Amino acid sequence: MNEHLTIVGHDLKFPKVSLTEPSRSFYLHIAAEIDRSPFPFFLATSRRKKIVIAEAKKWCKKVSAEDGVVSADVFNAILIPPGTGKLLKERPGTPLARYDFAILIEVSTQQKLSEILQGEAYKRLRANLEKITEKVHIITATNVKRIAPVDHNKQGVFLFNYFYADDRIQNLEVWEYTAGWFQKETGLDNSTVLLPINEKTSQYKIINHCRWDSIWDILPSLLFKKSFHSYVLDNFYANKVAAMPVLYKLA
Per residue in 142-173, is it b (16+ CB within 10 Å) or e — as a string? Predict the structure, then answer.
């Protein structure tokens, strides 16, 4: 453990998270806030968003057939669940993650990642996103910690959890410390933590990505289990970390 990690709730005994070796892949993550909602859920989809989703799915299907591409998927947000914690209230200028559209592309080499970024289809999609919304977040990343690969081959409820923190190492340490709670309380058996390659280009220190079969596998635990606050959120706050979770479906 990082010697600067502050632990609260020692009396709450949760098992240490079970991790496997991180993937050697490289990732492109694109997130955008297209349809803004005053509510924590997304019911309607605008015409402009439908057009972007169709374009993105067509591009990802083509990209996924290329050598060196592991997966390329488009996500449409359904819910912003509980979990942001107290730190963001104390820092009103923090950029909030309420992205209702996301793409995740996984490739085997950094060279392949560069080829995608230099492609006309990527540049066109990025330009279209920037035309319809000012809130677009794009990073390239590696996998720094992993429970197991996230299955994109079947529908489910997918989490992108955008972490704001003062210190990246502290963020990773407290994520690992609290992830055991999710394994025990929600049956989580997969997770890929994305670490931005260039920290200066990202508003978030890390982005955690994982999947459950159903929203009922995760939401009741966040709403009704007191230890989510006293163990997970309180440890985040004690270490100057704020999670900004968004739940998605495959588009």
Answer: bbbbbbebbebeeebbbbbbbbbbebbebbbb
